[in-house]
Amino acid sequence: MLNNKGRPTQPVTAADADAAMETFTGNKGLNLESPLIFEQGVPGRIGVDMAEPKPVKSRLGGLDRKEPVGMPDLSEPQVLRHFVRLSRQNYAIDAGFYPLGSCTMKHNPRINEKVARLVGLGDLHPMQPTSTVQGALEIIDSLAHWLKTITGMPAVAMSPAAGAHGELCGVMAIRAAHEAKGESRTRILVPESAHGTNPATAALCGYKVEAVPARQDGRMDMDAFAAKLGPDVAGVMLTNPNTCGLFETDVKKIADLVHETGGYFYCDGANLNAILGRVRPGDLGVDAMHINLHKTFSTPHGGGGPGSGPVVLSEALAPFAPVPFVTHGKDGFDMVEQIEGPAAQSFGRMKGFHGQMGMFIRALAYMQSHGADGLRQIAEDAVLNANYVRVGLQDKLHSPFAGICMHEALFDDSTLKGTGVTTLDLAKAMIDEGYHPMTMYFPLVVHGAMLIEPTESESRQTLDQFIGAMGHLLDKAKAGEVDAFLGAPNFAPRRRLDETGAARNPVLRWTVPEGTDGGEVTLSAAS
Amino acid sequence: MLNNKGRPTQPVTAADADAAMETFTGNKGLNLESPLIFEQGVPGRIGVDMAEPKPVKSRLGGLDRKEPVGMPDLSEPQVLRHFVRLSRQNYAIDAGFYPLGSCTMKHNPRINEKVARLVGLGDLHPMQPTSTVQGALEIIDSLAHWLKTITGMPAVAMSPAAGAHGELCGVMAIRAAHEAKGESRTRILVPESAHGTNPATAALCGYKVEAVPARQDGRMDMDAFAAKLGPDVAGVMLTNPNTCGLFETDVKKIADLVHETGGYFYCDGANLNAILGRVRPGDLGVDAMHINLHKTFSTPHGGGGPGSGPVVLSEALAPFAPVPFVTHGKDGFDMVEQIEGPAAQSFGRMKGFHGQMGMFIRALAYMQSHGADGLRQIAEDAVLNANYVRVGLQDKLHSPFAGICMHEALFDDSTLKGTGVTTLDLAKAMIDEGYHPMTMYFPLVVHGAMLIEPTESESRQTLDQFIGAMGHLLDKAKAGEVDAFLGAPNFAPRRRLDETGAARNPVLRWTVPEGTDGGEVTLSAAS
Amino acid sequence: MRYMPHTALEREEMLAKIGISSIDDLFADIPEEARLGGLLDLPLHESEMTVEKNFRNLAAKNLSPYMTPCFLGAGAYQHHVPSVADHIIQRSEFLTSYTPYQPEVSQGTLQALFEFQTQVAMITGMEVANASMYDGATSCAEAVLMACRVTRRKKAIVSGNLHPHYRDVTRTTLQFMEFEAENLPPVLDRKEDFDAHIGSDIACVVVQNPDFFGRIQDFTALADKCHEAGALLIVVVNEVVSLGAIMSPGDMGADIVAGEGQSIGVPLSYGGPYVGLLATRQKFVRQMPGRLCGQTVDQDGKRGFVLTLSTREQHIRREKATSNICTNAGLCSLAFTIHMSLLGETGFAKLARLNHSQAVTLAEKLEVIEGVEMINDTFFNEFTLRLSADASSVVEKLAAKGVLGGVPVSRLIPDDPDMSHLLLVAVTETCSVSDMDQFVTALKEAL
Amino acid sequence: MRYMPHTALEREEMLAKIGISSIDDLFADIPEEARLGGLLDLPLHESEMTVEKNFRNLAAKNLSPYMTPCFLGAGAYQHHVPSVADHIIQRSEFLTSYTPYQPEVSQGTLQALFEFQTQVAMITGMEVANASMYDGATSCAEAVLMACRVTRRKKAIVSGNLHPHYRDVTRTTLQFMEFEAENLPPVLDRKEDFDAHIGSDIACVVVQNPDFFGRIQDFTALADKCHEAGALLIVVVNEVVSLGAIMSPGDMGADIVAGEGQSIGVPLSYGGPYVGLLATRQKFVRQMPGRLCGQTVDQDGKRGFVLTLSTREQHIRREKATSNICTNAGLCSLAFTIHMSLLGETGFAKLARLNHSQAVTLAEKLEVIEGVEMINDTFFNEFTLRLSADASSVVEKLAAKGVLGGVPVSRLIPDDPDMSHLLLVAVTETCSVSDMDQFVTALKEAL
Ligand SMILES: Cc1ncc(COP(=O)(O)O)c(C=O)c1O
Ligand SMILES: Cc1ncc(COP(=O)(O)O)c(C=O)c1O
């Protein structure tokens, strides 16, 4: 940061600079820093031109804003540069291998971005008369058809906004179904290895969560499961393939058992990628399953969202689906938006309007691009790649569960024991090598877990290089070169960050620095 | 590079890697390497799906391609990642300050990119009937109107593809005009400080180039100029503001003198940015001037092009303008494409079709965004910024010419004398600080020239930081810290490159490495 | 297939390395009777060219609000999104990155989130904001849950003038928990009265400003009333541009603000994805749902940002988490941040003034039409008209004339005869004078 | 104004720092009588929203070939450009960088150029290629100048079947130099005969393949003839996709290939910007015009790329340079490289086969129509028909029916009665069966 003379407020002496290879600006070649946007403002600039408001008689009823908001004024080029610089501090699938287990970081095709922005799609208003959005409704209807066909399920609720939201939808449908039967069940069974959203969702539906332990082979312990089942169990939430990257071999038995006791089978479909076109969840006894369009069907993760989590439903649960949904009317497509008529039993509404249309478009474009043949190929290549990594690293890392995995390879940290290097340290060293680390410390059932999901998008050459680099790092760790790990990352835009400090004293927003005029934005510099 | 086992072909030992802080992959955090595309291919992949060609009876006359081309096969995600990685090795205006003198590296608005791609514009075919492209012709016509109004000139030739191409157009018009009068003049006068394209262009038109020296104050030496004038002089090519960043104060006298001897005044308009709305070249006696739309009117430089160089022409030269040009016909706009009718005296055709339409759209959008008020503001802020830098650095660097400059500030290397640091070394150290270096060693009339053009797009805060950083570097140089400069850049994707070696033994393309099967693409790896 | 790099030969070699002979061996864990033999009954893969054509054809079946005079609002607003915003969110590094779990290589996303949180807090007049929720409606529901946690009470009073979708989502979300939402009926003819409902068992009161019908209110007194009763005031904002012109919820004493951020940076996109805003007081931060980005330093002492206070979240707290949310509206919040940064203090205020002046201009043209009655005493950029005819048939007639002339209230509040003639009309900076005139003419004809 | 960051206050402070009191002082060097007092007679600045609307309105005045059956060629071809190509060239780092004069921070552009040069050399069958020229026509002219330099001769023989724009540009370029281009007349009914023209004073013969009328020829014998006479053979290619299916110029013995690269990666954009290709033999490299990128190593021994052999260029050699070109077609060459990389060996060949099969399919439908005569014995994706009516009026009639049904030869070769009934028809992978059928029907009606 600079004062208004262009000098750093914490001066860097030449000696300092040389010593630490620091620069005057704080930039290092193409690694460019940008202060907070609030530190770059000068009052009176404009970044968006617009017409002068016509003077009119105000109808605000005198409730005018009294104080300035406190935001900075910048020009368009400054804002552009700021965000370009920030972007360059991010890792991304487009830039490299991003084997984050459970996240399905696959290629995000650009054509999907393009079609989502077409005039007549990207600009549609959700409250247009349905007669003026027949193309949009056709998209929702087509996507629903693909999802139902892929999963072998008779119905789908399109509106949930993400995986967790889909879980909520599915478990609410389960609860509504029980209530419709006059039953009030209280427990939901969830394997220990489940993603955190599963228990959190069950709790939101007023259920008590009961954890089911895993077997030696990484699947749910059937004995424990059977023991916990009972007439007060509303259902089971099972991820399949599970979060250990394994197919739950007893899945049909699980379905049968839960059905026998009058419960429902919720399947977390986050890992659907592994089984596309090879098996349909509907054929395994599933009653509800969310589909993360932002995983399996490649709508971009966008640094954390938005996503879309349609939920396929069995005949038993379909009547309870939330509004809205698309129907085939006599003049084309229509939409049911209220809890009445065909939606009389609906448990309610999950979000404003009709769902994540932008994601629907991208997902449908992705499906059309793959077709039935490509979808199956996705699963095959995704599983092939995971197993290739598993075998490639088997001499260097320990797999807690033997045998073939599905779309992701799980390792534990037993090989690192005694080296002084942790899973986290290894991850940070991977950053220096140009990789995004795998998922760590999840699933919780494995100590120091490393969950590697390469996806079908990666070439064998990428995997070979990754296996080589991981082997190199692991050899180093075993050779006792601990310091190289503890200091890592060395080459990222930041070295390790103080997360404890951040949580202890949370600074969650910028505020006007003390000692400066509260009403005025500070004059600091970015280039 | 890796062999097909994923191991580096030149192995990095752990010791090596640590010593030099090298990594196994060659990547360093977000600085990601990508081998040549030819080193990543595996035969049989496809990056573009397309329909299977229907079997037909060939009409190629048996002249089928016999041998494979030798290109690699990659999938779409691989290609995307490759070019994303490459892009990250570039500096850019969007990322930082790019004060390359004579290049006008200003903000490139995104709206211009958007409108250039609209269906109905970006997809028009140049040979559509003119009745189907009235909107396109209107764009050309409007842009011509803006250019003529801005320059105060009666005519404009739109088709030249860049500045140098515009020069060729203008000088050809001059030659055609002389020839039409039955005169065959042989010499063109060009100031010493001129851009290389000026003499090169004159030579392409069959003229002998005569250099006119500069005065002490950086303007053309009027005595020398007058002395060289004569009936065999076809004209003068003068850059104004000139390449020293100075306005040629005698410009009207120059025009008068050259006109008196029957010659024409070609003005290199590369620096038009400095005078937009403050003076019209037409009022200074100019006969022809190219306008770099990719400088003054912000069409993106794109790593070297494409550009667009319309040439405004005086009454005297207008009849000789090249085809095509747009006319107002009775059914709307029309186009003259042949040397006949209104184009009977045209000297010919400069390029295929009708000019750089994509650039016309962007430039017109840029002009509309600025308007008459904004255009003038451009000149004012550009000149203000240059003088701010000039004054900001005047204690640290020596200006060869005293006083106010126009859009760029010129310094020489006299301050560096005896430090062991050259202009080039200083430039490379600027890279480490996160700047693109200024233009160096141009214009040739100044020793170790440093030509800094900030443009109107840059904020005062950016300039302050730049002035601070330059001061810091210059202090370091003067303090004898030479090594820091000779080693620079330290933080860029590459350190200094061996340009001499490159020229001595030119390797201008990839070829199949010796020892591998010529017919097959090597199996090396990228991630 | 263009997205998958393996060749047949490579697949074989990889299988060999794994030590199996066929792809089927990888799927041996699937119960045999459920394994699919052939392909799914779906079309085969298509080229990019064909896919693009498919969607252009689908787009052509819709009436584009961009190309049509459009006066639709009701919680989603047509605004001009600067091209820079859409350009930046398409940069690979923002578009194709995950949640910033590895902060050292996610500073771009993290710093932008910190800026987003700051902007949201600033415009709402609150102390802190989170890193986004799915949309305004879910944000509203989460705000109610949060209020219940903060107050340890179980009942929420929900204004009848809250957007019906927000009411429905809140009710739906609470229905299976120990919490209860009392949805009051819409009130058209007077100020809504909450006093009778507020008591010591009330966790919160939820109001909207401007309300669903477009009316602006000062909720300061209501806030005081809530606070006296130990309850929180939740203010919902679904047209954030209004905050550039009117008093902020914070100024009125709101405890939680739940908002829809779509108006800034996010295209209409037929209703989603949008971006839910959630802002509150610093003291409630540990009861907030969703991600939070916080400032910290790295090992070298450089400022940096991380996700923080994650002990609230599902991946740490599981069934005890404040919410089950994981994926949020990341890229939309980025678009919001970029657009808001472009606007800045000056532009945000001006945009709001411009919207209001446009709305007043249109209102003055419409309210003099025979058969049209303005029901709003106040409004920002949206107001409600009572028509002499059924509003939904009028809207259909207008659409047939190529005018998207507002939202019939009955689409959102059906089966209520009071509502059947009401039309919600929104107008923003995107409407030209000629758009307005077309609307006026068409409406006269339709009535 | 959104693009300029200074506030009025800042401007004043900056003036003070410079030591002057008014902006006018900065422009004091301008002759007083020429200084503009007021504003130019042009509209004032407009918002982004308005500018976008302006251009949408302009676009609406054109008939979009994307939305219309389009059979136009004549040197510019409609192909599907993969979205990845357009996405990448819009990345800030490619879009907003200058010529890579600072190689340490320009490796992205440089490596891409090296790949471009390699691809161009490969597809043309030549040893080296440069980093691009403005377009095919200027590349052709530059090739002729280059041949004159290489051979130290002054005369070029230019085929009558070369694209008329290329002929005109070449003539225009040479007209004021000591060189001369002899433009032969177009030949429709037989093979063009160059023998009589080739002599010891001839620098080069320029031919096109496929030629302007779409015909494919083997120029091996001509190359031999040229070489015997000490002349060079220049082969022009303006539909580069053809090189995926037919013998390359290199295989025929060409010395220089001048090409138009638009078909790969570059949108039609009403004629520009396009990308000129120039390839030749290694031994002529020092006579090449334009930029060249070469491989080298950095101080640490890492492979890197630089602009090289710049002693040929204007900025070093000034009036003795091989050309005056400076700015070239950088970003278009990048788009070419990306598209070509996506196609790869397999895709490039397939695309060519697909184009040919499409063209044959259409030809078979058209040549049986009464009043239509195919003049080509061979073709790739474009052919010439002789119609029973004047081709330009037929084309107008077709356009009125919403079909862009080819280019009348008379638009490019006017005033030649032999040409007036000739229609150039191109067909690429973008044409659907229904496009073809619409064309057939419309043509029958128009004749
Ligand atoms: C197994 C599993 N379930 C559920 C989720 C939640 O999905 P979302 O983030 O879309 O809410 C995730 C996301 O990571 C997951 O991995
Ligand atoms: C003064 C001057 N003249 C002419 C040119 C040539 O313009 P172009 O590169 O567009 O051909 C330049 C480009 O740098 C220049 O600076």
Account of the 3D structure:
- The complex is a heterotetramer, with two copies of chain A (527 residues) and two copies of chain C (447 residues).
- Chain A is α/β, with parallel strands linked by helices.
- Chain A has helices at 14-19, 76-87, 110-116, 134-151, 163-180, 197-204, 222-228, 251-260, 357-392, 423-432, 460-478, 482-486, 499-504, and strands at 155-157, 187-191, 208-212, 233-239, 264-268, 288-290, 311-313, 325-329, 332-336, 409-411, 439-440, 450-452.
- Residues 1-20 and 518-527 of chain A have low confidence and may be disordered.
- Chain C has 447 residues and is α/β, with parallel strands linked by helices.
- Helix content of chain C is 36%, strand content 13%.
- In chain C, strand 5 (232-237), helix 9 and strand 6 (256-260) form a beta-alpha-beta unit.
- In chain C, helix 5 (107-124) packs parallel to helix 11 (330-366) and helix 6 crosses helix 7.
- Chains in contact: A-B, A-C, A-D, B-C, B-D, C-D.
- The interface between B and C is medium-sized, with 25 and 23 residues.
- One pyridoxal-5'-phosphate (PLP) binds at residues 102-103, 162-164, 195, 197, 239, 243, 268, 270, 292, 307, 309 of chain A.
Keywords, separated by commas or semicolons:
heterotetramer, A: 527 residues, alpha/beta, seven-stranded mixed beta sheet, three-stranded antiparallel beta sheet, 9% strand, disordered N terminus, disordered C terminus, C: 447 residues, four-stranded antiparallel beta sheet, 14 helices, binds pyridoxal-5'-phosphate
Helix-strand layout with pairing:
The complex is a heterotetramer, with two copies of chain A (527 residues) and two copies of chain C (447 residues).
Chain A lengths: L13 H6 L56 H12 L22 H7 L17 H18 L3 E3 L5 H18 L6 E5 L5 H8 L3 E5 L9 H7 L4 E7 L11 H10 L3 E5 L19 E3 L20 E3 L11 E5 L2 E5 L20 H36 L16 E3 L11 H10 L6 E2 L9 E3 L7 H19 L3 H5 L12 H6 L23
Parallel strand pairs in A: 2-3, 2-4, 4-5, 5-6
Antiparallel strand pairs in A: 1-7, 6-7, 8-9, 10-12, 11-12
Chain C lengths: L7 H11 L29 H13 L22 H7 L2 H4 L11 H18 L3 E2 L6 H16 L3 E4 L5 H11 L5 E4 L18 E7 L11 H9 L3 E6 L11 H4 L3 E5 L15 E5 L12 E5 L5 E5 L6 H4 L12 H37 L5 E3 L7 E6 L3 H10 L6 E2 H4 L9 E5 L6 H14 L1
The site of one pyridoxal-5'-phosphate has 14 residues of chain B, from helix 5.
